[in-house]
């Protein structure tokens, strides 16, 4: 059976700084994979070197969801016996190629896993990666490979087996162990994966010893643990995403859920007497340590319950509401309040053991199944565990302090001081009455990003109902940024927070607020980034946060606001710090569908028309080129609104005037059938006039030919009638 072959990436033609080729050397849920550099030349190359010569049997490749190569070729290299094993001495043999899906059907939300069967020997594996598919998410024409897995045999062992069983050398081995599969390595929690590997090894030993009952037990445990590992891996990814977004409430919630789920898993392993397999051969000591901690915590909690007197309900109701509101999130209804939470969130992980009465089900990635779990008694609760919906509004109306709400916290993702004091019997501190108290969780996350550098009261004005307060806050932020003279790291932080401010303020419909936001936007993207020497990556991140909102406002019903948004985009595209980044042209040429709002579609076409005057489309090195503009216009020609089609036709004609017949590649073939459609007939006629070719309307030609044929028919009928009359007159004369 083929096994996983370890390798190292020894060469890559290019790579993004944040996604180096070394990411392919290992597998896991948090692996980012390799990405080519922005606007790289094609084809790209990757070369993998194995630890020693192998008999390659299978290659698994996990593609990116939208940075997708159109084709990948595979070459296997080896060095002759006379040459030393070096990359320069390798000689390659082409194995074949694969074509990847463009992923449009899944709307670029799924990753394609390709499995390629091969049968060859070598030391190096070279991948030739061809040009990417164009889509709305791939702004920089990059390609990416998330993971590569190589399966095969040691060449020495392979030759030994071939000598013992020569008839099997030509057969292809399609069976691989689940622990060597790429899907297992990429979507499994590392600790659970180690347990599964030990269980799989024990299962194979039981099969060899014909202990099939034990083998079945290990198989069932392995199947359930795979689902557990997938869920824990998903929680880990969600926790890392929350940390990157600085949403520490969600991160803490995910961490607690992982600990609860993992604790129940180890408890079930102990119930089924499988823990000895986990810690066998000196492996798994971390698991045993975790289990001891869990048992000690449970004993401590039981002792604490016995010693603690009953607490009246009235005294704990306030604390209960605080704790539940602090940890609640849209993704989970789990509240961490001691033993009750442990019971409610616990799920049977492994097959039942002994007398069990209750059945529960879990689902990972949409799959579910019923599993038996022990019936743990539920401890009594001295309070009512629910959230009063009108608590926040009542406190605000009555002049209360609003305890327990995350919305009033100045510490990102943490519990505020007021809540901590109320939980431990401290003196209540009056909170400031600001507009952030009524924000939902998503808005509070956004506000927290601004409050990293700006004062909370200042950010509260931005969310005020009165637009004059918002404009005053924008003016204050403008003055802060204009006079800022801190170090480089602080400058980056202020740029990031300022981009959140601008993106938020662009959403308001008041023209005065929008104008103040534009003033701040121009300061950030021109003078500020130039004075403080902000790096390109930070500028791109801030611009990509603001630009989609600004583009959406170009389709606003307010004509003055719509015009201001267009002018801002066109002006900022020529800024010296933004022009080399090509971000604005790439966003503008992103195609839209035919059901797009007419105002927005018209504005997009007008933006392209104006940007073509700023950028040299023929050069093609500034984000606008004949290809992407032609694709944009071809899609705009399908729009339902006639004004949009006329603007697209106008851009097409301007392109044809400057770049010639290359534009015709993005139009249907020029024939009579295509010219029956008015929009294409008008375009091709205009092309012909530019080329000095006189054209006639096919419909007019058809009418003329019909008229000629009818005239000829009438003349022939008249001649026949005259001949008959002459014959009659001759007979009468005789």
Automatic annotation (TrEMBL):
Q: Where is this region: Disordered?
A: 300-423, 693-734
Q: Describe the location of the Centrosomal protein CEP104 N-terminal domain by residue ranges.
A: 33-152
A single Pfam family it belongs to is: CEP104_N
Bias (Basic and acidic residues) = 300-310, 711-728
Q: Name one GO cellular component term.
A: cilium
Coiled-coil intervals: none
Q: Where is the composition biased (Polar residues)?
A: 322-360
Q: Origin, by domain of life?
A: Eukaryota
* Gene3D superfamilies, per the entry: Galactose-binding domain-like, Leucine-rich Repeat Variant
This protein's name: Centrosomal protein CEP104 N-terminal domain-containing protein
Q: Which organism is it from?
A: Adineta steineri
